[in-house]
Design goal:
The complex is a heterodimer of chains A (148) and B (139). Helices cover 19% and strands 32% of the residues of chain A. Chain A starts with 14 loop residues before the first strand and ends in a 5-residue tail after the last strand. A 5-stranded antiparallel beta sheet of chain B has the order 1-3-4-5-2, with helices on one face. The chains are: A alpha+beta (148), B alpha+beta (139).
């Protein structure tokens, strides 16, 4: 079933996310990071960072809430059992560190079809407490067609 | 950061390899919040047609980003990345991340890399991430 094109440009509720040390440490360990700037605040400061650094793909922890809102939007008509993560893009402005409070308002940037698949593009511009953009995340979810 | 003078088009960044362990994928599910059973429940994965659970695409992307960041001299040097997920990764497979310098802008001192992640499976090389790129700031 095609996704509802009228939702292109739709914004969802603002997501606020305080970056805490435990989450950053567990994330860094799970991905196998060994650089101490991701694990130890002293090492991060010695390397010139304000605090323990979150790995560059850490913004994915927001995506469950950002993309999640669109995925379950009944107006969109998405069958989540058919969805795969097709593409992911990050444009970084500065590293995220422990203590940052991030906010973002996710929006549907595009919906289009390729062959029998439907593509849903969700963009989240993530800002810090001063309102400065930290990273722009763009996820493309693919809803696999039935092949007809 | 890596010096502009030390980088040429065609250079390859060091390949970074690691074996994907079930406990790491479980830890990734818990910390990322992505609890899709495809990454945790072998029976569920088999119903969908896989021999067992698969790693999150973002787990594989994180490994690639580590490889690029280590080469570039840290996360401050990373400007952007755009990846395409093209194949799945199973448990206990070795994922290898790498890339080639495709372009260097002498004015901004920015390098564009073609980047990938590959696995060797039953005599065939598969690319869980390919046709992807990253942008790095050189010093």
């Amino acid at each position: 079933m095609p996704l509802n094109r009228e939702l292109i440009g739709k914004e969802y509720g603002e997501v606020s996310f305080p970056v805490d040390r435990d989450r950053v440490t567990r994330f860094a360990r799970a991905i196998g990071e060994t650089d101490p700037i991701y694990l130890d605040p002293e090492a991060a400061r010695a390397a010139g960072y304000a605090e323990q650094v979150a790995p560059p793909t850490f913004p994915t922890v927001l995506q469950i809430t950002t993309s999640g809102q669109a995925v379950v939007d009944p107006e969109l008509g998405l069958d989540y059992s058919r969805v795969v993560h097709g593409e992911q893009r990050y444009d970084w402005r500065r590293p995220i560190v422990v203590g940052d409070v991030l906010t973002t308002t996710p929006r549907i940037a595009d919906i289009f079809a390729k062959r029998s698949n439907e593509f849903l593009v969700i963009e989240s511009e993530v800002a810090d407490a001063d309102g400065e953009t930290v990273v722009v995340a763009r996820s493309t979810l693919i809803s696999r067609g039935t092949g007809r | 950061m890596r010096l502009f003078e030390d980088v040429s088009v065609g250079d390859e960044i060091p390949v970074r390899s690691k074996v994907v362990k079930r406990e790491d994928v479980k830890a990734y599910a818990d910390t990322s919040g992505d609890q899709n059973p495809l990454h945790q429940d072998d029976d569920f994965a088999r119903v969908v047609g896989f021999p067992g659970i698969i790693a999150h695409g973002m787990f594989t992307m994180a490994h690639l980003t580590s490889a690029i960041s280590a080469w570039a001299g840290g996360p401050s040097a990373l400007l952007g990345i755009a990846v395409q997920f093209r194949a799945v990764v199973f448990m206990d497979e070795a994922i290898e991340a790498g890339g080639t310098i495709a372009d260097i802008d002498p004015h901004t001192r920015r390098a564009t890399l073609n980047v990938w992640v590959r696995v060797h499976r039953e005599g065939v090389t598969e690319y869980p991430i390919k046709s992807s790129s990253a942008k790095v700031q050189l010093a």
